[in-house]
Amino acid sequence: MSEQHTIPEKPPYAMISILFIGAFVAILNETLLNIALPSIMRDFEVEPTAVQWLSTGYMLVNGILIPASAFFIQRFTNKSLFITAMSLFTAGTLLASLAPSFAILLTARMIQASGSAIMMPLLMNVMLTAFPVEKRGAAMGTFGLVMITAPALGPTLSGWIVEHYDWRTLFDIVLPFAILTLILSIFKLKNVTPQRAIRLDVVSLILSSVGFGGLLYGFSFAGDKGWDDPEVYGTIIAGVVALVWFILRQLRMDDPMLEFRIYKHPMFALSSAISIVISIAMFSGMILMPIYVQTIRGIDPFESGLLMLPGAILMGIMSPITGRLFDKFGARVLAVIGLTITIVTTYFFSELSMSTSYANLILLYSLRMFGMSMVMMPVMTNGLNALPMHHNPHGTAMNNTLQQVSGAIGSALLITVMNNRTEARAEELMTDAMAKAGTTQLSPDAAAAMQQEVTNQAMLNGINFSFFVSMFIAALALLLAFFIKRPKRSPENPEEAKTSVAPNVVTE
């Protein structure tokens, strides 16, 4: 039996604030650990391939559980679901802080991820439930502040902490906020989302886990191991096969775990396509910039993080403003302006040199983030507005899943482009350098210096070319943005309405 939905007369701002804090802490935690990985390697005496699982494992658990979030959100109350998720996250954080071995630390990260995976889709669904269509832009813009600012602040904060304290401090800082959020949720959360007595299809869950998990794993390691590695193409092929099987199964089910028929709504389908393309393009800045400033320019991790901080702050400030502009003008105008800015700044990033000033890097990165802030949430909200209310959990689960997968694809694609270009350019430069040296016998120091210069120049060329490719990817998103329209919300299923009962909606 399904439940008819009614929007609360007054949005539950106190409850949404608690959800915001929980989501912010969870997303911040996801990016905090990356800079601390070398310290953890030394402490537990593990290899880079092993320590990388602290990040990869976290991502895989997210990729497996986020598609299932549509079922959890429909089956359980938002209060019980959030308390469970926050309890898992808090327990994982405490265990990570005390972990006596690497195996226990990895287990703790998996427990953390199992909690955080549900928070983002749950928060988005509560906001879609609590706010009418005409006010969702401002609400989702504020949500964007959490989604954008937390991962951008992570590397800067982590760099400073690791430089001055033990890596366990990263978890010690997060733990009090997690406990406070859990306590507040127990006493303050109310139920605003409708529930339905649906059953979880175990086969669908297995296929979803293998499908999305395989794609995420394969693409995540493609940049390091290469596309010809059996572990890479094997997991990608397994992921594709399982995902196709999963989709076909969902289309045959009356009550699917993840509803793919939402793509019958043109504006949602268009928003998904734009979000995938822009996510791939966005990863060029997040991946290539640290390589450029740290590996080529020799800037330390903390200053590297600081370089990205103004852009993150600007993006956070703009997110609520962009939301209000979306309510007034719609998504197309914002997306076209934002993507134009993104394309122009990405072009300038494809012209980096060994002498590009730190100030210019900050300015370009900040402008690029400014452009991005006008695209992601307006486009996503416009697509979700096209769905009937009962499909909101599926829409939010689909968006979050596609962001995970497209992020992995974007990373693999751009790293591969950079590596291939770097190798080709290194051969050219080395041939030229040897030709100039002629028969002159170089000293070991001179030969090493020449090798280092060739490596840096080749890598710079590879990074610039990757940004150039990213510019065309963003241009594809701009082309799609011209087709955006304000959607007419689809009516709820009349058959469901006949048998519906009033949901347990509580307003504050």
UniProtKB/TrEMBL annotation:
Name listed for the protein in its UniProt record: DHA2 family efflux MFS transporter permease subunit
Domain Major facilitator superfamily (MFS) profile, chain residue ranges per copy: 15-489
Feature: compositional bias, Basic and acidic residues: 489-498
Family matches, as PANTHER family: MAJOR FACILITATOR SUPERFAMILY MULTIDRUG TRANSPORTER MFSC (PTHR42718)
Annotated compartments: Cell membrane
Family in the record: Belongs to the major facilitator superfamily. EmrB family.
First-listed, main subcellular location of the protein, grouped into a coarse class: membrane
InterPro entries: EmrB-like, MFS, MFS_dom, MFS_trans_sf
Keyword field: Cell membrane, Membrane, Transmembrane, Transmembrane helix, Transport
